[in-house]
Amino acid sequence: MASTSYQEIKDSLQRLYLDDPRPWLVGFSGGKDSTMLASLLFEAVLAVPVEQRKKEIAILCTDTRVEIPAIVETIEATLARMHKLSQQNALNIEVNLLKPPPEQSFWVNIIGRGYPPPNRTFRWCTQRMKIDPVNVFVQQRLGHWGEAILHLGARRNESSTRAQAMASRETRNGLNRHPDLPRVWVSNPIQFLTTEEVWAYLLQKPNPWGNDNRALYKLYANASNGECPIQIDTSTPSCGNSRFGCWTCTVVERDKASEGLLAAGDERMEHLIAFRETLQFYQDPDNGKRDMRRKNGAEGPGPLHIEARRELLTKLLKLQEGTGLNLISEEELLLIQKLWKSARRPDDGWGVARIVTRQKGIIMSADLKELNMLREMEDEIAREKNINPDILRRMLAKVEEYSESHRAHGLPDDLLNILKDDLAEQTAAKKG
């Protein structure tokens, strides 16, 4: 593609900027396609006279908290440069690194709730960790904006499936409605470019914010893979199939991106790859790490049992200490402890603290005397009402969990399932 055709894309973006008053959202993942899109967009806005740079523009990037470290470092540095450029030139472009809330983090779901590591049939991670943070942000902005235009770096050349999906969508003035967000219109400015044309553009000069795209090219060469696109709905291709994504990903058999970065000299990846293999082991119900009764009481592979969750937390803290990476926060640890109290064979409320103390020599803040008094009170009430103390604690912990999230939907079913667990154990004990 000639440079004049790149200019045509910038001119089209500039016309849309000036002629359409709706604010812009821009998906950015740090990969080649979204980097090219952002470069063209910044150049288009820089070409607008300063007094006309009024449009609100929000760059959206997601961090699942378990992204490959080298990718996170690159993205954070890039976003910082974008912010600086916008500030210096009054571009009115803000950058947003969106993350799932702690209660929906990967470790809280796996180690706290006992979710098995994701697989192709139960890929719970994408919605909670990538789509929901973006949708929450977009819905909040739509409350002020009314409508918005979302620019994405999707290209038809990436796959035949993507080409068919993009071709089938209804367009109006070059825009198509978002399938799940009716007040959002989607723009794909680089949809007809080939991979070679994308790299030709990126390597001919630095980005407006100063990044040298040769470093990005080297990252791709090291990983020998593609990027993990920002996701706004389930129709957008997910991670997997040799894309940059989460180092914990158990959906694919091999994480070629992580392996490529290790081969290129990123020694941190050796430990992360080994831990990913541990997650794959815990995922397999034949390895004895999962309850063989589901949360609804039905027979079949269910959540990780409490002993497996304790093991994984111990291994994760050891990994964190060995790599020097910040893998899990104290807030996540406290949430995990609360969730363990409502698990089958519930924790005594002190298990996470014991593991942290044993692994790191750090005592988590808690009043052990008060905790013991509470357990004695629960035991006394259980005896009076002829209730299993563990079942009472699980029900209390479940009510506490719902009250903290200020919601009640689903609580009756969860309490009923706890009672079903008790009934099933009593029945099993009588048969035994």
Could you explain the architecture of this structure?
This protein is an alpha/beta fold and 432 residues long. It folds into 2 domains: 238 residues, Rossmann fold; 140 residues, no CATH class. The protein is built from 16 helices and 7 strands. A 7-stranded mixed beta sheet has the order 3-2-1-4-7-6-5, with helices on both faces. α3 links the parallel β2 and β3.
The major pleated sheet works out as: 7 strands, mixed
Mean pLDDT: 84
Q: What is the H/E string?
A: HEHEHEHHEHEEEHHHHHHHHHH
Distance between the termini: 75 Å
Strand order of the largest sheet: 3-2-1-4-7-6-5
Shape: elongated
Q: Can I get a quick summary?
A:
This protein is α/β, with parallel strands linked by helices and 432 residues long. Helices cover 53% and strands 7% of the residues. It has helices at residues 3-19, 32-46, 69-89, 106-112, 124-145, 160-168, 195-204, 213-223, 256-263, 268-283, 306-323, 330-340, 351-360, 368-385, 389-404, 411-431; strands at residues 24-27, 57-62, 93-98, 148-151, 171-172, 175-177, 184-187.
